[in-house]
Amino acid sequence: MAHGRSRPPLNRLAAGPTLLIWLLMGCMPLSASAEQTSAPEPPEGMALIPGGAFRPGLSTEMEKKLEAHWASERAQLRLWLKRHPRLAHLAEDADDTEEPLDRLIERSRRELNGRRGGFERDLNTARGLLAEHPDDPYLRSRVATLSAALVDLDLQEALLKQVESRLAFIESQRTWLDVERNTGEEPVEIRIAPFYMDRTPVTVAQYRRFAEATGRSMPWPYQASSTGEANMRGHPRSLFPEQTHPSFSDDRSPITGVSHPDAVAYAQWAGKRLPTELEWEWAARGGANDPLFPWGDEPYNGQQANLGGERLATLSPANPNHVRIDGRPDLNDFPVLAPVGSFPPNGYGLYDMAGNVMQWCIADPAYDPNLYTVLGGRAQPVNPQTPRRWGIPAGNFQPLRGSGYTDMPFEARTTRRYGAPANHIHAERGFRCVKDIGDD
Predict the structure, then answer these.
(1) φ, ψ of residue 228 in degrees (nearest 5)
(2) Predicted TM-score of the model (pTM)
(3) For 36-47, what is each residue's pLDDT tens digit?
(4) 193/100: higher pLDDT
(5) CATH pick for 10-56+192-436 out of 2.60.40.1260, 3.30.565.10, 1.20.58.100, 3.90.1580.10
């Protein structure tokens, strides 16, 4: 096959000097808009993504939608409280007084501690008297009753901590948004040229053809599935114990466990390339105006994407990567990977832009947490030598977009950005390719 470019040409994104000229001339539209594109029929398995202009990242309107989403999360937590007899009064008090749930939790904790102090004093007294009168049935019953009451208080305290931790988790979601906010006096707007994009992530069958044609090894999940022994490339075996699940070996599943260089090599072999972050986000929106998720703004109900559920945790209950803290049951039939295209496509006919696997993109020279301020001329690009996580230089990081089978619903945002070392391999990371119009 013909070899394509591993990086997009510079004129694919109207950024830098070209973008500034457009802004100064006032020639760019004020809102996101797709443009009609006259282009040949897309290659097999690809969709035509029209060109257009948009402001990537979280808009003010999207943040309002997220606030409503988090309010729904808190409402679900209250519903959870109402189903637990020991804590039902919290939800009732929250409904009656409209007092914030965190304050009600703190008040309940003080009440529990006060009751515990009284119970402990009475229990110590009863035990002392029982030592003097070991045959007294009243004292024996009193010691047993107070001991059981203290255990019950401990259970209530544990539940309070669980609710408090869940609340903290909901609030912590905001900390993930810093790299997604496109802020400034005038949020940067980007013009995207039309291109073709794979309708689905690259599948196991497609990658196997590439591996056979080039003499490359299949990624470690597939080595594990076929031989029972995984080549973890330095990763602990406990990191992805679900790798032997039959869904990893299904030819229709997305390929996983690929590094960024692996994805680039496949794209070159196929005469394609990896998408830029902004191309991926533009495509994920599917022509909609600032959607929270590729399927729209509706809360996750299990029918839009393959995201984490309770059954995944049962495959490896001691694995901290698979702990479920959202309290929701499984809402679809896929405990791990789903065949690509198992859920409805977005407006551009693209499948699995949320769920199943996160997807490698490409940045030149590297993933930049301050992408939008750099594009807007308000910051300098990342220094490739700056140490980042694990002491790895920033220049070794490449972007990932989308969400995987282990992720929570809120992580399926169209704006979600994540940077990882290019040589890191994970069971929930795959990729899809794009092709420039006019490339043969």
Answers:
(1) 85, -5
(2) 0.82
(3) 666 788 999 999
(4) 193
(5) 3.90.1580.10
